[in-house]
Amino acid sequence: MDQTQLSVEESAHNLEKHADVQLDITVEQLKKLVSPRAFTGETMLLNMGPQHPSTHGVLRLLLELDGETVVSCIPDIGFLHTGIEKTHEGKTYLKGLPLTDRTDYLAPMINNLAYCGAIEKLCEIDVPLRAQYLRVILAELTRMNSHLVWLGTHALDIGAMSVFLYCMRERELLLDVFESVSGARMMSSYFRPGGLWRDVPDVFFDLVRKVMDVFPGRIIEYERLLKENPIWRERTVGIGVIGKADAIAWGMTGPSLRGSGVNYDIRKAFPYSSYDHFDFSVPLGTKGDVYDRYRCRLDEFTQSLKIIKQALDRLPPGPVITDDRKFAPPPKHEIAYSMESLIHHFKLWTEGFRGPNADVYFAVESGKGEYGVYIHGDGGPKPRRVHFRAPSLCNLQALPQMSDGALIADLVGIIGSVDIVLGEVDR
Amino acid sequence: MAESTSLAAALGDAVTNTVVFRDEVTLLTTRERLVEVLTHLRDVERFEMLTDETCVDFHPGEPRFALVYQLTSLERAMRVRVKIMLSGADRVAPTVMGVYRNANWLERELYDLFGITFEGHPDLRRIMMPADYQGHPLLKEVPVTVEEVAFSFNRRRIDDTKIYAGE
After folding, report:
1. How far apart (Å, rounded) are the C-alpha atoms in residues A118 and A110?
2. Three-class secondary structure of residue A168 per DSSP
3. Among partner residues B22, B138, B144, which is closest to A90 by beta-carbon distance?
4. Are A384 and B128 a contacting pair at CB < 8 A?
5. CATH 3.90.1150.10 is the classification of domain B2-135
6. Predicted-complex ipTM score
7. Which residues of B touch A32 (CB under 8 A)?
8. Which parts of chain B are beta strand (E)?
9. pTM exceeding 0.90
10. Most buried among A293, A323, A328, A387, using CB within 10 Å?
């Protein structure tokens, strides 16, 4: 049987299988999405994605084009829907943690922080100060990691190839730090409800100091490549403009919102994990175009370094996980001598801890914006519902407005400037 | 808390109950008055951003669904949660797109994953699942996993049901 025959048979089988399927959309409903001009041949319909290098993953855009101008842009998402929220319902609170790494896979530690923070709020767990400071250091390193990948791919989309290579080079330094603490370079799962998995090794401080030494010079290097580059400015200034009021109405957060000049940073507005102990500023844009969003993110590198430096200097000694044995396992040497510790250990690893029948919402400032976790417990060891408020999803919703009337070449820049991660959009 | 009483007092009988848990204020309202409550919160109390909209399934409890609206006021640095309860037999809620336009995709997601219909929504299509998908995966009657775990005694039987069987 050759390949063509197989595929014909397969599609016939599929048709047969779906013969009784009722679609809950009609062609009429879909026709309303584009202007009537598309059906008279005045404008052209074009699919961009899901397999397109400039859509940063599996984003599909249905574009209606008048020549090279975008008349309407209809994003189609869901290609990476993995049912993470459903999977959480079948796992205990602790076992759900590694799943959070996989939502925004460029900022795993920040996702861990949001998830652990929500559980800590739900169960009223106190986190030791040393763990809070270490969380801040790691979250800021993760933010830099997220921004580096954004800068590299964004610049690559617009045509600056070398920036991508430099960004990947610096990212290695950060991944080395994550590897030193957790053993994993990307999916770290290092945070635990109540603190951290273990204290950081000594090599961690050397690696972070290396990052601190290297980075300021590298940021200047990126700026020299892009900031005054006439081609870069031509491609970004005045493109994809979104005003203050619109950005808020679309629920945009993070650097995409701050590029429009709205001062909203969760680290300042609703401080968590001792962010209020540190002195840093929030970079703001003015016009809300692609260039302003780029400036905001690039300035955040400097602020992140500033926070890391303060946290390192003032890092207190002490435990890194709560001593409440109902939520954190006892140390191994205690188990051999204490019956109570043995019981706690057994209960934690067989059943897990229980969350009350109530709901909490806890949000952190991720590299993309407000990453929130909504948990509704049911009194048992598994949550009733876990929901992730994905910043990329809300930011992406504003794309049709930002790209209205733009050239198709600029659309690529606009998608890059919103900084989406499809793992988080589709969850 | 003072803020929760003042928020609820201004809304009068539109708010049926106020819950404060871990310093988070939740206002319960009915679906008939949801749009009115959200409009008031946006215009008078300056909660200008709809941060999140989601749903909780209490199956087999009744009322079965809770729709949760998470609002944020940027200038007051305040959050409030608005909740309505829906019965399992009548899964219809009004759309809040007229108040917060980013409810568009969030409501499409709830329609897709929970099967809740939003009255007045202009473009209620599936967003995460494929267009020909049957059912709503986040409902509690949908099992979390349908795959049997393979051990040595049942591995062969499970293998025979796989796509790669016979290769």
Report:
1. 12
2. helix
3. B144
4. no
5. no
6. 0.86
7. 123
8. 15-21, 24-29, 49-57, 65-73, 78-86, 92-94, 117-119
9. no
10. A293
